[in-house]
From TrEMBL:
All copies of domain Oxidoreductase molybdopterin-binding, residue ranges: 74-218
Organism: Larkinella humicola
Listed name of the protein: Molybdopterin-dependent oxidoreductase
Region described as Disordered: spans on this chain: 27-59
Coiled coil location: none
InterPro entries to which the protein is assigned, alphabetical: OxRdtase_Mopterin-bd_dom, OxRdtase_Mopterin-bd_sf
Domain of life: Bacteria
């Protein structure tokens, strides 16, 4: 099952889809070979998810609640002040205001949220913008291999482009039909359903494309660089 899209501007959608397909062809093999899609001995239990992995990764406990975990600061950014910068190893860096962000194709998806602190919230309905569509706006250079995401709270986290470009990686503004709450990273946070959730920056303000890997906040403090839930890949 793929996320559902809506688009207010057909011409803009056509341009984004064309650029997205170029990225897909460039990274498709690497995406398909990532552990959360191809691991032959994944660790976990329950029925398979849509990628064939056990629904509940090893050592995770399902919760209906959504615990709040952060660095202790909840930046309250008014929508008329919010901006997202996308730069680094790209052909066309951009700075999006809220209206620009909301004018992009909006994607609805239902995915699971796995926290490294051993809880999982399953089947969460989201609305947001695909990371792949944001990448299509700026077109990563051939030198780009990773991204670093930054939050308004000073947080940072890294990931390989083949993970970031997956179709279920979104910058979300809506959860369960309501605006994303401030304590969970509103107005916009990134979600990474095939990695532990610390790889998705809350209160996101910048995405930097990198020519090579660089460690983020928790990665510098001993957390895994790769964060694969079905390999119990929590710490380095």
């Amino acid at each position: 099952m793929e996320p559902n899209e809506t688009a207010p501007n057909a011409d803009k959608l056509d341009r984004i889809i064309d650029a997205r397909m170029k990225l897909k062809r460039r990274f498709e093999e690497a995406i398909q070979n990532t552990p959360s899609m191809t691991d032959e001995k994944p660790l976990g239990s329950g029925p398979p998810n849509r990628h064939g992995m056990p629904k509940i990764p090893k050592s995770q406990t399902v919760t209906k609640k959504w615990p709040v975990l952060d660095l202790g600061h909840h930046p309250n950014i008014p929508l008329d002040k919010w901006q997202l910068a996308i730069d680094g190893e790209v052909e066309q860096p951009v700075r999006l205001k809220w209206a620009d962000f909301m004018a992009l194709p909006q994607t609805e998806d239902v995915s699971d949220f796995h926290c490294v602190t051993t809880w999982s919230k399953l089947d969460v309905p989201w609305v947001g913008v695909r990371f792949a569509d944001l990448a299509a706006l700026v077109m990563p250079k051939e030198t780009a291999t990773h991204v670093m995401c930054y939050g308004f709270d000073g947080y940072s986290t890294n990931m390989a482009l083949e993970e970031a470009l997956k179709s279920d990686v979104l910058l979300v503004h809506t959860v369960e039909g309501e605006p994303l709450p401030l304590e969970h990273g509103g107005p916009v946070r990134m979600i990474t359903p095939q990695l532990y959730a610390w790889k998705g920056s809350k209160w996101i303000k910048r995405i930097e494309f990198l020519a090579g890997n660089r460690l983020g906040f928790w990665e510098e403090r001993g957390y895994s660089n790769t964060a694969y839930p079905w390999r119990n890949d929590r710490y380095s």
